[in-house]
Design a protein that fits this description.
The chain has 243 residues and is an alpha/beta fold. It has 6 helices and 12 strands.
Length: 243
């Protein structure tokens, strides 16, 4: 089954170093749009939309990635988030994934019936360097979330995350930065994250090389069309024995 994307609002405010070359800003600039202007989209109710036969356009069992052109916990979206949670609550048969840099706002933004977390919601905390890991991951681990994942993308430096890896983390995803202004990603950083995950029995997924990829001291310019394929070709993903 294919993955689905749901963007209830569009636009974002840059939050940290990982946002410097944000792809949303890059794409919006190319069409004369200001990505710092936050707008509610026409597809706000998409997970509840039905076709002419009355069937959900997002079928049961689907994976839905939320707010891929914004951040679900953006403060400027506070007036709309309650309604978005209502939509997620109404589709317990669909798995929603929320990726955020604003994990420190999480407790301010959850619905009153969240309790230990909803079974159909995974929350992924993005950390791009050691400073982000040190500030966000201790908070992330303390939060009531049923499925927690860590996203190291764009990976901008080596990250030591052993203190936060364990059975409470469902997986780690890593990848380089894309775009003409991309910063380099070193394969040694990727391999070290893989090692940490393997030793902690946590799944690891190498998603993409990024545009400028360093391997064995040599810098490679990887075309956008090959960045995911090259990562797959490395064959370094980790699937824990406990899964």
């Amino acid at each position: 089954m294919k993955d689905y994307i749901w963007n209830p609002w569009h636009g974002c405010i840059k939050w940290s170093e990982g946002c410097r070359n944000c792809y949303v800003y890059r794409r919006d600039t190319s069409v004369g749009r200001d990505a710092s202007q936050i707008t509610r989209t026409k597809s706000f109710g998409y997970p509840l939309a039905r076709d002419r036969r009355g069937t959900y356009k997002v079928p049961p069992g689907a994976q839905v990635f939320c707010c891929m052109t914004s951040d679900f916990f953006l403060d400027m979206a506070d007036p709309w988030r309650g309604e978005a949670w209502d939509i997620i609550r109404a589709r317990p048969d669909v798995h929603f994934t929320i990726i955020t840099k604003r994990i420190t706002r999480f407790l301010q933004c959850i619905p009153p019936d969240w309790k230990a977390g909803w079974h159909n919601v995974a929350v992924c905390c993005t950390v791009e360097n050691q400073a982000a890991a040190d500030s966000r991951l201790p908070v992330f681990l303390s939060l009531p979330i049923r499925e927690k994942r860590i996203i190291c993308e764009p990976l901008l430096s080596p990250i030591r995350m052993e203190p936060w890896l364990g059975p409470q983390i469902a997986g780690v995803v890593a990848g380089g930065e894309s775009g003409p202004q991309a910063r380099r990603c070193d394969y040694d950083w990727i391999l070290d994250l893989r090692r940490q995950c393997a030793e902690a029995d946590v799944s690891f997924f190498f998603k993409q090389t990024g545009a400028y990829f360093v391997k064995d001291g040599r810098l490679y310019r990887i075309p956008r069309s090959q960045q995911h394929a090259q990562a797959r070709r490395a064959g370094i993903d980790v699937v824990p024995e406990r899964l």
